[in-house]
Design brief:
Blueprint lengths: L4 E6 L4 H12 L3 E7 L11 H4 L9 E2 L2 H5 L4 E4 L3 H14 L2 E4 L6 H10 L4 E4 L5 H17 L4 E8 L9 H14 L3 H4 E3 L13 E7 L5 E9 L2 E9 L3 H13 L6 E3 L1 H5 L4
């Protein structure tokens, strides 16, 4: 009989999905309860280990998430916004801990997740890294201390294949900066400057998104004041740190009351 928490991985054939599988397999207190791919994917029905080019692991790849969720206690989801909404409904029915690292979620998607969070534990974050979440807390604190006399710019760099901008992590940092200042990010956000933009609006929180090569993820928060600059930053050199953070969140969610949580809750980062 398996010991520990059964964790499923959806979108297991993707680059991040494969890392999530590896992170579950190496984690004490957890085991891989299932893996899914989209209907029609060539991996469906195969042993996961063989599909990944290795030895059999005794886990069949499934294209029916409901069947996999029925034998799991948690699910790791780094897929697409539309797919995540569907998985959230199934996870709520099964009362699973749903760990969401999907980015590009719009207000309509988030509304569905709020509804699902009435029945299941949802841990959602644009970045599962411990270091990044510490950076978010520092950004909130520094923004509060320095105040509106310091201009805030958030610069993020990712690989050329990333499809959304700004990154989910950059938006986390922007939300933290806005919260530290006591304003709404939607009112302060400035992105994509081009042409004759005029002077920088007072109190603006600027974003710049760079794309190229195979950069995993780099984020910098610049506080520029009169006569000095304060810079906070994080560089990711291994995607496994995101996967390990997701497994940590799945284990943390066991026994929690239904609701929406973040990595700030998981890590206890109330600085």
């Amino acid at each position: 009989m398996e010991k520990g928490v059964g964790i499923a991985v959806v979108g297991a054939a993707g680059r991040m999905g494969r890392m999530l599988v590896a992170a579950v397999e190496e984690a004490p207190g957890a085991y891989l309860s299932g893996a899914t791919v989209r209907p029609g994917h060539p991996w469906a029905g195969q042993d996961l280990g063989e599909a990944m080019g290795g030895a059999p692991v005794g886990v069949k790849v499934d294209d029916d998430a409901l069947e996999v969720f029925a034998r799991s206690q948690a699910v790791l989801d780094f897929t697409t916004p539309e797919a995540t909404v569907g998985f959230a409904e199934l996870a709520a029915q099964a009362r699973l801990t749903h760990v969401i690292g999907t980015t590009g979620l719009e207000p309509a998607h988030l509304a569905h997740l709020r509804a699902a969070g009435r029945h299941a534990v949802i841990v959602r974050s644009g970045n599962m890294s411990v270091g990044v979440n510490l950076l978010v807390e520092l950004t909130r604190k520094v923004a509060a201390v320095l105040g509106p006399d310091y201009d805030i710019e958030i610069v993020e760099t990712h690989h050329r294949h990333k499809v959304d901008a700004p990154s989910g992590t950059a938006l986390m940092l922007g939300e933290a900066a806005a919260e530290g200042r006591g304003v709404l990010l939607d009112q302060a956000r400035v992105a994509g400057r081009d042409g004759l933009t005029g002077p920088r609006p007072e109190g603006a929180i600027g974003f710049a998104s760079l794309r190229g090569g195979d950069v995993i993820g780099e984020h910098e928060v610049l506080f520029a004041g009169a006569g000095e600059r304060v810079t906070l930053g994080h560089v990711a050199s291994d995607r496994m740190l995101f996967a390990r953070g997701a497994v940590r969140a799945a284990l943390w969610g066991q026994g929690r009351a239904p609701g929406e949580y973040t990595m700030r809750d998981v890590l206890g980062l109330g600085l």
